[in-house]
Amino acid sequence: MDKGYFDWLYFDQETISNSGLRICVETYNKVIAGQTRKLSETKALYKKTTGLDFTASRQHYVKVFSQSDFTIKIPLTKKGSLSFNKDLWPYLKDDTIRGIMSDMSEAKHFVSHYGKNFVGFMKHRDNKVFLHPKFHDGITYRLLTSRPALLNLPKVAGGIRECIIPNNDGDVIISADFSSQEYKILADISGDKKLIDSMNSGLDIHNYAKEATGMATRSIAKTFNFAIIYGAGDSTIAKQTGLSLSEVKDMRGKLAKVMPDVFSFRRRVKAFSGKFGYIINAYGRKIKTPEYKDYAGLNYFIQSTGADILRLSIKTMYKLYSDEMTKDGVQILLQEYDSLIVSVPEKLKEKWAGIIKETMINSYRPRNGLKMGVDIEYKYKNLLR
Question: I need a labelling partner for 229 at 20 to 30 A (CA). Which of 77, 189, 290, 328 fits?
């Protein structure tokens, strides 16, 4: 990346990491205990259901997939070994085993990342965790951290989010979240007027798709909507929704008629990605796409554009309000996907909620009349979702 050309993307990430995250130790201990108990219970249920002790070995996965009538070809790693990951779980024909594996993996990941290792990063004097910033994730240029990795907090019940409290007594946490950011970017850039008008009127995108195509539930419509962005094929959608392949093809066809400009834009991005090996996002930034993954071009376009919008929001906050933030005791704690998490004095919450909302909305200039929205939520004691 040309730092000079994209200087607006850069800001002093140490400013965020140096403020630290204040952790409620009592809540943290309860959360870890709950996730550890969940891991133990799911392992026991897994053994009872499959007759196998859970391990992460490839041989173990072969046994499980074999028992579950696993019929698709298993991909290989670069070294030629069998590759297993969560992307393959939808193909497990046994819903019970798939559900148990998902729950167990989630708990295992949580405990390993936020258990004993996490405690080592906590400064016990004031119960704060200080982040070590990375510049980006290598693809979308979303702000990331390591040691510990806190900018992609797992969205699980009883999660680590619940442990985060305002940095100072008398403060409140403001969670500012772009509403339906991914689909609003897609609607605006593609110029799909019907979709833009519907979203501007406040209609939920998934209900819009459900009502327009006659899909049975909002959940099914949501699966189809995100399949457009992420490039999921008909077989994957069928596994996730329980529909037949013919039903999926029929619904996809109906959705294409409802959102013609979206599907047209998706085809163009896919063709460009396949031909040149990269995409150019809404801000003119070039992002390489993996070989043989031209279907992911649209996802890279949207995710990178979303990342740039939020990075520009943070950059603007520091540029315009740095002195005022210091004076008022305002601290940006986290940038998480399409959200900003900020600690502010409670008496100034409405003032700063307005500033944050206006800054975020103005960081993206719609091309086709779209109204970008930001939802504000106040967290007084912890960071709950």
Answer: 77
Distance CA 361, CA 201 (A): 17
* The pLDDT value given to residue 385: 37
Burial class (CB in 10 A: 0-12, 13-18, 19+), 44: exposed
Which helix or strand (DSSP H or E) is residue 165 part of?
Answer: strand 164-165
pLDDT reading at 309 higher than 60: yes
Instruction: Give me the pLDDT at residue 327, please.
Output: 95
Q: Characterise 252 by phi-psi region: left (phi > 0), alpha (psi -120 to 50), beta (else).
A: alpha
Contact 138, 301 (CB under 8 A): no
Q: Does 141 score more than 90 pLDDT?
A: no
**CA–CA separation, 258 and 69 (whole Å):** 37
> Which option is the CATH number for 18-160: 1.20.1060.10, 3.30.499.10, 2.60.40.420, 1.10.418.70?
1.20.1060.10
Higher pLDDT, 345 or 293: 345
Q: DSSP characters for 14-39?
A: HHHHHH-EEE-HHHHHHHHHHHHHHH
Cα separation of 298 and 282, whole Å?
A: 11
> Looking at residue 131, what is its pLDDT?
56
pLDDT at 238: 84
Sole residue written with tokens 């080592």: 120
DSSP H helices in the chain: 14-19, 25-50, 58-67, 95-114, 116-119, 181-190, 193-200, 205-213, 218-230, 234-241, 245-258, 260-276, 297-328, 349-362
pLDDT band at 3 (very low <50, low <70, confident <90, very high): very low
CB atoms within 10 A of CB 203: 13
Q: Is the pLDDT of residue 161 over 50?
A: yes
User: Per-residue pLDDT averaged across 20-48, rounded?
Assistant: 84
- Return residue ranges of the chain for CATH 1.20.1060.10: 18-160
- Which CATH number is associated with domain 168-192+277-385? 3.30.70.370
